[in-house]
Amino acid sequence: MHRIDGPGAVNNLFSAGDPTVPQMATVVTPEWLNDVQENIARVILAAGITLVKGDYDQLRQALAILSGSGLVGEVIPWFADELPASGDWLKAQGLQLPKLDYPLLFDVWGYTYGGEGALFGTPKLNGIFLRGVDDGAGVDLDTDIRTNRGDGVTGDRVGTKQTSATLDHVHGLFVGNPGTGVGSENGGFGTAYAGSGTVQSTAGLLSQTEGGMFMTGANSGWHRNQISRYETRPVNIAVQYIFRWR
């Protein structure tokens, strides 16, 4: 790169010229134009972007990528209702986007999240918790039931899905002295309930016809702790997942 040094340049600056001095207008030389062109083009290419005639946004995109401000296709949690003012982000709500309008994003995702022809799909993360792909680590032991991410791919792959689940487990049961109701912890395990055939079950309750327990009364052993009718979930805060498209 070099500063303008052609005829009419004044201290390596452009001049409009002044006939009263006289001072000629600066001549923009091919050497200077080629220098500017190649410096700009190589910044764009270094960011992995193919030069496209008529695309006036490529230098800005390249600077954003090379400065570490983000990669096309990255997803972040956003703690606001409105999208960032830069215009570089879209909501991860399963949008179908035109390939021609979002070429950089299509290069990253293709049809991974659905779509065909002129349109391609994007991740739908409404109400979803994100989880790192197991990638053979053996932490997610239910990868065999992970469902289609949008392009027919299932199993241990990025973008596949799981429904909610609760780990298999057992609940101990305290059984009190004969009579209706259930004994306390201190009174349990000492005497079998009449007709129950067992003092403690770790495999769930049998039905009465199977010789299991039959409990009556307002204080009987049946109970339920209801947090949600719909799912099992941790403490959480709602965010908006958004992705960079340029």
TrEMBL record:
Residues 73-129 form the Phage tail collar domain. It holds the Pfam family Collar. Gene3D superfamilies: Phage tail collar domain (3.90.1340.10). This is Phage tail collar domain-containing protein. It comes from Fundidesulfovibrio magnetotacticus.
